[in-house]
Design goal:
Elements lengths: L1 E3 L2 E4 L4 E6 L2 E6 L2 E7 L5 E5 L1 E4 L1 H9 L3 E5 L5 E5 L5 H14 L1 H29 L6 H19 L4 H19 L23 H23 L18 H24 L8 E3 L5 E3 L1 H16 L1 E3 L6 E3 L3 H13 L13
Cofactor: Mg(2+); Mn(2+)
Family: Belongs to the CRISPR-associated endonuclease Cas1 family.
Keywords: Antiviral defense, DNA-binding, Endonuclease, Hydrolase, Magnesium, Manganese, Metal-binding, Nuclease
């Protein structure tokens, strides 16, 4: 159980939620795990749905406390809310901002600031941890380029130019990605990003990791009442969760890319885990996917200190915290959306 931003996160499995007076009570096998006053809560997010009492759901609905349920893996199940009060206002604000390209750019640039900052941090970390295994001067030059691009992005108020700056930063970062692969170089290499289809082992894993991250991000956004399909940087396209793609930009490198690199460099995956189809597409075998998913869920349980909140949370809660911060910004509770800047 963790309270952040007036939101109660319940991450223990098989917990039943009940009401006692003005308090929420957490029960597991009839044993009381915790008790917390409800009057200061705006929302309750529960993973590993077991159930909630009708009394608690009624209490939360009457007082506009959203009650959201996810599976332990982070898949969105349901959200219990009362009359449309704050939620409809939040989504209307999201739609208004999305229609205005100048307003959209002011939010979108913070997503890109987070992405470039985290890529720069990854590059600096490599020069610190592996100075004898990489070309340090090349990495330092790239870090300087990213620093310069960060300044340009921070002042950018045009979506098209913002996409151009993001593209420049991606090229700079991708040129070094192959050098971050330190093991199994004969089977795992990165020449360029290939998506549909992925044409090598590394791209196959990156595509899978990005898909999982997008699913987690979309679920988190739905959990706080935002529309995951209406974005600011990524514009509307039928069937595309544009806002999820927006917010996950900050986490692509620092979570998904680092995760893929760790699987390769720790030899958790091997060339036998992949096969190539007739059209050139490289895909993971069934056992490899199971291994990947297990490692992904374990990674989400690792603890970090959130850079904006200064609180220890699991990696799996980061998308939910960023979704909450975005919702608060759109409600004018924050002056600016704080991107996830990992150190």
């Amino acid at each position: 159980m963790k309270k952040l931003l007036n939101t109660l996160f319940i991450t223990q499995p098989d917990v039943y939620l009940s009401l006692d007076g003005d308090n929420i009570v957490l029960l597991k096998d009839q044993e009381k795990l915790g008790r917390l006053p409800l009057h200061n809560l705006e929302s309750i997010i529960s993973f590993g749905y077991t159930g909630a009492s009708p009394a608690l759901m009624g209490y939360c609905a009457e007082r506009n406390i959203s009650l959201t349920f996810f599976t332990m893996n982070g898949r969105f199940l349901a959200r219990v809310i009362g009359e449309s009060k704050g939620n409809v206002v939040l989504r209307k604000k999201q739609y208004v901002v999305s229609e205005d390209e100048a307003l959209s750019a002011r939010i979108a640039r913070n997503f890109i600031v987070g992405k470039i900052y985290n890529h720069k941090w990854m590059i600096e970390r490599m020069t610190r941890d592996y100075p004898l295994r990489i070309d340090v001067d090349r990495f330092k030059d790239a870090s300087k380029q990213l620093s310069s691009l960060l300044l340009d992005v921070r002042d950018c108020e045009n979506l098209e130019r913002l996409r151009g700056l993001e593209g420049q930063a991606a090229i700079c970062y991708n040129r070094l990605f192959d050098s971050m692969i330190l093991q199994q170089k004969e089977s795992f290499y990165f020449r360029a990003r290939s998506r549909r289809p992925p044409l090598d082992n590394v791209n196959a894993m990156l595509s899978f990791a990005y898909s999982l991250l997008a699913i987690d991000m979309a679920a988190a956004l739905e959990g706080v009442g935002l529309d995951a399909y209406v974005g600011f940087l990524h514009r509307d396209r039928p069937g595309r969760a544009s806002l999820a793609l927006d917010v996950m930009e900050e986490l692509r490198g620092v979570f998904a890319d680092r995760f893929v690199l760790s699987l390769i460099n720790k030899k958790i995956v091997s060339k036998e885990d992949f096969f190539q189809k007739e059209n050139g597409a490289v895909i993971m075998g069934d056992e490899a996917r199971k291994k990947f998913l297990m490692a992904w869920q374990n990674k989400k349980q690792e603890k970090i200190t959130h850079p904006f909140l200064g609180e220890k949370i699991s990696w799996g809660l980061v998308p939910h915290v960023q979704a909450l911060l975005l919702a608060r910004f759109l409600r004018n509770d924050l002056d600016e959306y704080p991107p996830f800047l990992w150190k």
